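Lab channel / #folding
Pinned by the channel admin:
"Please post every new chain as: sequence first, then the structure tokens as a reply. Keep commentary short and put observations after the output so the thread stays searchable."

First post following the new format, from NK:
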Amino acid sequence: MERGTKKCRILHVDMDAFFASVEILRHPELKGKPVVIGGSGDPTRRGVVSTASYEARKFGVHSAMPLRTALKLCPGCIFLPVDYNEYSRVSMEIKKILFEISPLMEDVGIDEAYLDISQRPEPPEEVARIIKERVLRETGLTCSVGIAPNKLLAKMASDLQKPDGLTFIGPNDVERLIWPLGVRKLPGIGPKTEAYLKELGINTIADIAAKGLEWLQDKLGNSYGLYLYDASRGIHDSPIITEWKPKSISREETFELDIADWQSVARSLAFLMRDVAASMREEGYEARTVTVKIRFEDFNTLTRARTLPAETGDLEVLRKAAFECLGRIELKKKVRLVGVRVTGLKPKKGPDGRKIKSPCAKDARR
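Reply from TO:
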């Protein structure tokens, strides 16, 4: 772990089965039972698993699985609808705690974040325990924390002892803790790459580390081959990003039943556009381009875009642009999904806040 390392102390904080844990906190009678959160909460209708309690995971239930499949695997599961408003509220409480621990925080999702604690005087394990104790005391939820010199190892560490874990991975721990893991445990490797690597006789991270850089680049391309070569050795240079500008804001809805009624599609689009405009106001952005997506019953997907003369956050202007896009799509088949996205985002009032500098953090736009 020579190249790219700095004397950084990075924490990855990952909430344990977050959606399910919030629901169990609201409904204590569900504790210890297999709980699945997803869609409308009706496993006989269209929808996918957002998260599942650890009791449900023992039956093979996992995120992104169709609810119907989850029901077959675990007929005794308790299914609940997704309540993003409540999860977002709790997430804000957690992120407030983390920011108080270190303002050098990268918010990477509703249930996880990275912290650079290099400037804190306490040992990193003590800081991690403070976080776990405060989150439990103030929200009633548990989290798993990974400690490492970089983001990649910190994220992998947080997953090693779930739930309610605390794991440290140092430069000398990579061979012992990381190499025996399956390749899917390495961030950036999905199911298709996993299958391809298995065809090449690579099953563990140690197998990747045993290959030379040229071999990996020949099989997987220069950029990805270099990433795997470094990552399998615990080398990672990605900084903590404390400030970022979103590239887009979007919303979409998958209908429970495919619909042929144009007015129903239009009503859904109007609702989604209002939601997008509200997010723009909350985050302080205006947009230049509106894109509408329609997916038909046969999964054929069409998009239409409208670029405005100037950035705007005006709901009526955005709504009119969205309906202009919809008017350019022939609705001759039943519709499965409708979505809207705004791009070309620009802050309303200059740059977003103050930039925070540290040896292990930098500002970025993504």
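NK: Residues 248-344 form a domain with the Dna Ligase; domain 1 fold (CATH 3.30.1490.100).
TO: also worth noting, The two ends are 27 Å apart (CA to CA).
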